[in-house]
């Protein structure tokens, strides 16, 4: 179901958003009938609490939505999305919500209508919202559509979302927005000098490929690179079953950059966009690459393979090298890359690395503004020695276990050369249902990046 706001409707049911401290004053201005009903219902304005107030003929006259206290709201976001899920089907409008919270809550209400129902019918929120005054409803609808795409791609199991299907999703997007797409597959990867993309994906039934999508003819050049490992067995360093269960989401970086690209093109931002996705499956077969192998990347650097389960940085390395040849003004990679990042910041924060202080400043402010939390980790140069094995230029999996997210990011930075660059090591999965974010695939960092782009690129 498209995530859309309802048309302006004079009959829309008002939802009065009330903080706990304001309930008594609001009630004092209401009719006696309303006061009696609300008091009898036990409504206190606690966060997420709702009460439906009937009219004299039994229809819903209004709804009250508890907005709690600022201290309780600080522990989450999209609070009115939970209200949307409790309301009966109908059209509603918000009353009493501060303008500083209107955009976040309106987007959360839209996202409460998301459900992944490809394999089983689901029950998303049915309550439709009229776009609040002062909110750019069309912009939020585009953002919600991009987020919905990211979630759908991540939620789809590898049986139905291999490299072939990921390419098809890119082609569909290219058709929708008039973008150009070029795909290099199979042995052509070797002919066109993408050796590590080929090596990681060659053991799978579906051929590895590099997807290259371009949109826009004018403006600054932005390149997005997304890890598209559609399933990760770990290769010959086979993962245990408990670690393999969520590996359909290992293409979450690709899904997130595609969601972001959908937002950029849907909003018609004045820039030149390029999306590069190395799409592979890291499988086990007689021709799988091995621990101890030394690979030569597109840029000529040699890489010793000390763990075939550290494959994402390999395919990204070729894609990043290729991207720099186009001289982008800014380049971003997104990947579900390391467990170390999850240990560091948990599943709800999008950790990122950059040497571009202007981007970091703009992103931090934007993340707060659009309720899309991020956290900066360092490109700590003294750790460079940890990714230099001696026998080759680079080590894909340094021993010792220290600073795993940082060493992975440093590995990627070697292939970004002198390009202005940021890397996001995301999780791409919401392990516990929360308002506007059901359990499952989720975009991380994309909305914050979108908000920051005008300042970063001078749009």
Feature tags:
459 residues, Aminopeptidase, 2 domains, 16 helices, 19 strands, elongated, Peptidase_M17_C, Leucyl aminopeptidase family protein, protease, hydrolase, manganese
Relevant CATH superfamily of the largest domain:
Zn peptidases
Distance between the termini: 32 Å
Give the structural class.
Answer: alpha/beta
- Name the overall outline: elongated
Keywords: Aminopeptidase, Hydrolase, Manganese, Protease
Domain Cytosol aminopeptidase: 307-314
InterPro entries: Leucine_aapep/pepB, Macro_dom-like, Peptidase_M17_C, Peptidase_M17_N_1
Protein name: Leucyl aminopeptidase family protein
List the helices and strands and how they pair.
Blueprint: E1 13-18, H1 23-28, H2 32-41, E2 50-54, E3 60-66, H3 70-73, H4 79-86, E4 90-95, H5 99-111, E5 127-129, H6 137-155, H7 163-177, E6 180-185, H8 188-191, H9 195-201, E7 209-215, E8 221-226, E9 228-232, H10 241-244, H11 252-266, E10 272-282, E11 294-296, E12 302-304, H12 312-324, E13 330-335, H13 339-345, E14 350-354, H14 357-369, E15 374-376, E16 394-395, H15 404-416, E17 421-425, E18 429-430, E19 440-441, H16 446-457
Q: Could you please describe the fold and organization of this structure?
A:
This protein is an alpha/beta fold and 459 residues long. The protein has 2 domains: 13-135, Leucine Aminopeptidase, subunit E, domain 1 (3-Layer(aba) Sandwich); 141-457, Zn peptidases (Aminopeptidase, 3-Layer(aba) Sandwich). It contains 16 helices and 19 strands. Strand 14 (350-354), helix 14 (357-369) and strand 15 (374-376) form a beta-alpha-beta unit. The two termini are 32 Å apart. It comes from Roseovarius phycicola.
């Amino acid at each position: 179901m498209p995530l859309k706001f309802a048309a302006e409707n004079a009959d829309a049911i008002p939802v009065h958003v009330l903080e706990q401290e304001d309930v008594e004053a609001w009630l004092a201005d209401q009719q006696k009938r309303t006061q009696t009903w609300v008091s009898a219902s036990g409504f206190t304005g606690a966060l997420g609490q709702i009460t439906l107030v009937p009219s004299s003929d039994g229809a819903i006259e209004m709804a009250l939505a508890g907005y709690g206290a600022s201290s309780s709201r600080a522990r989450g976001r999209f609070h009115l999305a939970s209200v949307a899920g409790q309301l009966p089907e109908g059209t509603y409008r918000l009353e009493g919500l501060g303008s500083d919270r209107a955009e976040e809550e309106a987007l959360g209400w839209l996202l409460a209508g998301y459900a992944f129902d490809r394999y089983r019918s689901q029950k998303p929120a049915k309550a439709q919202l009229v776009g609040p005054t002062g909110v750019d409803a069309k912009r939020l609808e585009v953002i919600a559509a991009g987020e919905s795409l990211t979630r759908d791609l991540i939620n789809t199991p590898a049986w139905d979302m291999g490299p072939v299907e990921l390419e098809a999703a890119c082609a569909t997007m290219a058709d929708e927005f008039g973008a150009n797409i070029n795909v290099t597959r199979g042995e052509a990867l070797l002919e066109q000098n993408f050796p590590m993309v080929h090596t990681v994906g060659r053991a799978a039934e579906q051929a590895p490929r590099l997807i290259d999508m371009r949109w826009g003819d004018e403006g600054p050049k932005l390149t997005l690179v997304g890890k598209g490992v559609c399933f990760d067995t770990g290769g010959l360093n086979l993962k245990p079953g408990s670690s393999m269960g969520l590996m359909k989401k290992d293409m979450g970086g690709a899904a997130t950059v595609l969601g972001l690209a959908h937002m950029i093109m849907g909003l018609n931002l004045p820039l030149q966009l390029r999306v590069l996705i190395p799409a592979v499956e890291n499988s086990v077969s007689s021709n799988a690459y091995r621990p101890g192998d030394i690979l030569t990347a597109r840029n000529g650097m040699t890489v010793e393979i000390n763990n075939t389960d550290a494959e994402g940085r390999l395919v990204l390395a070729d894609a990043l090298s290729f991207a720099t040849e186009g001289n982008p003004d800014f380049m971003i990679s997104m990947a579900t890359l390391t467990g170390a990042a999850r240990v560091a910041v948990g599943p709800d924060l999008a950790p990122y690395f950059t040497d571009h202080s202007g981007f970091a400043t703009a992103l931090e402010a934007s993340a707060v503004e659009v309720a899309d939390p991020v956290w900066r980790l360092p490109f700590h140069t003294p750790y460079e020695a940890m990714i230099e094995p001696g026998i080759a230029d680079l080590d894909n999996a340094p021993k010792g276990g220290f600073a795993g997210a940082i060493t992975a990011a440093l590995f990627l930075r070697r292939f970004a050369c002198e390009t202005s660059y940021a890397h996001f090591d995301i999780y791409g999965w919401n392990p516990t249902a929360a308002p506007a974010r059901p359990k499952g695939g989720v975009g991380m960092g994309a909305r914050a990046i979108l908000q920051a782009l005008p300042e970063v690129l001078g749009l």
